[in-house]
Amino acid sequence: MIRKEAIITAVKKIGNYPVISANGLISRDLFEVCDRNTNFYMIGSMGLASSIGLGVALKNTKKRIFVFDGDGNILMNLGSLITIGTIKPKNLVHIIFDNNSHESTGGQPTATNKIQLTKIAKSANYRVFQAKTKNQLIKVFQKIKLIQGPIMVIVKIEKGKIVSKRINIEPTKIKNRFMNSLGKQ
Amino acid sequence: MKALIQKQIFDFLFNNGVENFIGVPDSTMKHFIDQGFKKNKIIITTKEEESIGIAVGMSLSQSNSLVFMQNAGFANSLSTITSLVQLYQIPMIFLIGWRGFLKSDAPEHTKIGKIQPILLKALSLESKILTEKNWKASCNWALKLIKEKKSCVLILKRDFID
User: Fold this and answer.
1) Which residue of A42, A137, B96, B161 has the fewest CB atoms within a 10 Å radius of its CB?
2) What's the confidence (pLDDT) of residue A183?
3) Domain-wise residue ranges, chain A
4) For the segment A144-162, what is each residue's pLDDT rounded down to a tens digit?
5) Which of A40, A59, A79 lies closest to B47 in CB terms?
6) Which residues of chain B have a CB within 8 Å of the CB of A57?
7) Chain A nearest C-alpha distance from B124 (Å)
8) What is the CATH T-level fold of the domain A3-184, as seen in this structure?
9) With an 8 Å Cβ cutoff, are A175 and B89 in contact?
């Protein structure tokens, strides 16, 4: 499964809930596959999607908040797992699309095949699920429906050759429409 | 700055619409943070960028935040400030301790203490130094700016040696 396919599958299951997506190809794929007001595309500040997601989750406790993170991104902000695991937001679902590489910058390796992110997340009070195929990912989404967060879903993906288009929405517009969508839901 | 005034600053900001106080501790503002803990309003993170990220998420949810840090942490945060806070025009108050303000402060603070005002200027971040006399006016200034959806900086000088 390539990232774009995983993102299509995840978005279908998520419906209208807010998604905070990490910079690089993850946000670009999400934008191309399913642009909507409830997407917050974090186009810079690598590593911080999960922190932004935590802030949104703490202030919108009646909604499930989804973070679309990458392996390079979460490795850059492992401290976020500590903070999330300390506060334990019940409504936060942290999805890591893991291709074991910095694909946005040319496919350089990350260390996620040398360490066990599942163990790190579990010891930081996450409920952890894994998926390698589309069917497994659909099943994980069914499983987590009634489970309290913080939840981590590690989706193993393959590197792909498809590069989605850049996000052509002004950052302040991304912000404004996301804020409006939070207010309305 | 006296403990009592630091506590008053916390209470004033809290009572005037700042709902979240997130950061990495600085002994310069110990009493401010202690007062926040008493009110159960403090979130301590592992790094300053993380604090800013959380504050951004809260701001997107219409809830105002103050992010506190040492100036070493401010230096850590430069990219996050430019590529997140300023890029999306997210309102928040930064409270930054000014280590290295006294020449006799510990050596690791000397350089950052010297360039702190230059860095603030380079980022076009408006700032005011909190003093025992002007703190209320400076807090009101910061509150006004976040109402206008701008970010700004309040500075607390490190005026003692431990």
Assistant:
1) B161
2) 84
3) 3-184
4) 999 999 999 999 999 888 8
5) A79
6) 57
7) 18
8) Rossmann fold (3.40.50)
9) yes
A48: nearest CA partner in chain B: B53
pLDDT of B105 higher than 90: no
What's the gap in Å between the CA of A177 and the closest CA on chain B? Answer: 10
Say whether A56 and B58 touch across the interface (CB within 8 A): yes
ω before B117 within 30° of 0 (cis)? no
- In tens, the pLDDT along A52-86 reads 999 999 999 999 999 999 999 999 999 999 999 99
Give percent above pLDDT 70 in chain B: 100
At residue B99, the 3 state secondary structure works out as coil
Nearest to B61 by CA among A93, A184, A74: A184
Closest Cβ–Cβ partner in B56, B63, B89 for A172: B89
Instruction: Look at A48 and B80 and tell me if their CB atoms are within 8 Å.
Output: yes
ipTM: 0.96
The domain limits of chain B are 3-157
CATH H superfamily, domain B3-157:
Thiamin diphosphate (ThDP)-binding fold, Pyr/PP domains (3.40.50.970)
